[in-house]
Design goal:
Number of helices: 9
Order of helices and strands: HHHHHHHHH
Shape: globular
Largest sheet: none
Length: 224
């Protein structure tokens, strides 16, 4: 039998998940050994365009919101407001954490230690996504995209859904590389994210706060 979480528990889990996600993204951006695909695409677009990283992250969130309307099949004010409330502070915090970590001794650690730290950052991202996707209070638009693909198109397969939802950032990275002939935030960690992040999310669904199940999937019919 599933134990229903109290409002206080949901708020705590939601806050923790956002912090974990921002920490994970901040670590991977600072180390430059490979970020999660959406973050890596934002870093490359930022270098190619000269715009601030947090600005690019907000623009990516706007793009994902539009895609999600088509995936959902209707516009939902509940989902839209949740996306905005999540994406704006998230984008600012990732930029802030990445700058903070650049001022720490992380960059002076041996390469092997930095690679494992980068993998650890991506694992934090996967665990965080698992928690707030199951809570479904508010989602980052790119994570909602993955969830829509997962449950609407791919029968709940987290790994396949993550791979599929990574197609847009892969295209963006390819275009920026053709324009600049430079790659940023692309390394071993990026391959790890591409191949393993969906698996990490699926396993975290079972192992991290196992009493928390996916809630309110696709019942945001306020705009139908």
């Amino acid at each position: 039998m599933t134990t229903r979480l109290t409002m206080r528990q949901q708020i705590i889990y939601f806050t923790v998940s956002i912090i974990l996600n921002c920490l994970g993204n901040g670590i991977t951006v600072a180390l430059n050994l490979g970020s999660a695909l959406w973050t890596a695409s934002a870093v490359n677009i930022s270098h190619a365009s000269g715009l601030q990283l947090n600005t690019i992250l907000i623009l990516i969130a706007a793009f994902a919101i539009v895609v999600n309307v088509f995936l959902r099949g209707y516009f939902s004010w509940h989902a839209f407001i949740g996306n905005i409330l999540f994406a704006v502070p998230f984008s600012i915090l990732v930029g802030w954490f990445s700058k903070l970590f650049l001022q720490t001794p992380l960059m002076t650690l041996p390469l092997v230690a930095r690679v494992f730290l980068d993998f650890g950052g991506i694992m934090l991202i996967g665990i965080a996504i698992s928690i707030y996707q199951r809570l479904n209070i508010a989602l980052h638009p790119t994570d909602e995209m993955m969830q829509l693909v997962r449950f609407k198109l791919l029968h709940g397969n987290a790994w396949a859904a993550q791979i599929t939802s990574f197609i847009p950032p892969i295209i963006a990275i390819t275009i920026t590389y053709l324009l600049t002939r430079q790659l940023y935030a692309i390394n071993l960690g990026t391959a790890f994210s591409l191949l393993c992040q969906g698996y990490i999310i699926g396993q975290a669904d079972k192992l991290v706060v196992p009493k928390l199940k996916h809630q309110h999937l696709f019942d945001r019919n306020d705009a139908k």
